[in-house]
Structure formats: C-alpha cells, structure tokens
User: Fold this.
Amino acid sequence: MNYTILVNKKNLLSEDYEPENLVEIHEPMGAKLDKTYVNRLNANAYNAFKEMQRDALRKGYEIFIDSSYRTYAYQEKVFADVALKKGLEHAQKFVAPAGGSEHQTGLAFDVIFRRNGKMIEEQKEDDAEIRWLFANAHKYGFILRFPKGKEYITGFNFEPWHFRYVGQKVAEEIFVAGITLEEYCQSHSL
Ligand SMILES: [Zn+2]
Assistant:
C-alpha cells in the first residue's frame, strides 16, 4: 500500500480503485451517517488510530471514527445529493467529486467525539479534542489533511475533523514543516 497516495480534485481515483486490507470498524457513530453505513479503514491505519484513541482517552477525550472508507459510487451520490439541494457551485466548492475523495483510499477518516455520554456532531478547531489531535496525530502517522489557510493548495476548505494516515515518518515531516500532502509529494517528486 502506498501511504502517500495523493487524491484531490485534480488527482482522481478510478471508479474501480479499491484499497487493500480494509477492516471493519464497530464504534459509536454519529447521527449523520446512514445506519447501514459500515466504517472501514486500512488495517495499519486503524491500528494506529486505536493507539491514538487509547492515548486520547487517558486525557479524557473520547474520539471515534465517524466516516471512513467510501466507494466511488458513494461519493458520486453524496456529490449529487448536495448539488441537488444546494446547487452545483456549492457542491463543487465543498464536496469532493467522485474519485476525488481520499475517503476512497481507506486511509482517511472524519472524527467525532463523545462527551458525558453524548455524541458531539460538530467538530470545531477550538474543541479540546481537536486541539489534542492537532498536536499529537502525527506521532501516530496521521496528518490534518485540509489545514486552515491552505485551501488554495489542497482545493478543500479547512476541515478540522478530517485526518489522513501517511505513516509516522511522513506525518512527522509534514507536521514539522507545516506543509500539506500536496507540497510533500511535490518536494519528493511523488
Ligand atoms: Zn473527510
């Protein structure tokens, strides 16, 4: 598995791209997702997540995966639904097109928190859990994939809830340099 695979609005995955080594995740989920949706993530990414989740819990933060692997067809539907409800321009700005979501790699996920037994459906950058993730996720091999102020590079708005597995070494380098995966791939000619 190539953990630095670059997927964005310009680098699309094909319709038949299917990631290797996905494992099912059974954790508390938020209300946003359809009840038939099953979270799946690359096994190595999930093992790293579990370690991060355990360490977060020691600090009192209950962090779960709310949305992970999505098929091409699923993303196509999400895009179409948003375009229908809010217009094509809105969809193009806020939703990845089919093939352009790295959720299709099985290496990306959105987080959700639980506080006092209640799932917190909206994640904001000043949430204590998010601040902890921003400061620590790289130690486990994750990067904040769509940072604030880098929209012009990633093509996506700031998403404080979306993390991507790239492995520890790469995550550390990206974190220390304060760059995006796009910039990392460019500087390493990937
Ligand atoms: Zn996401």
Notes: The chain has one domain: 22-187.
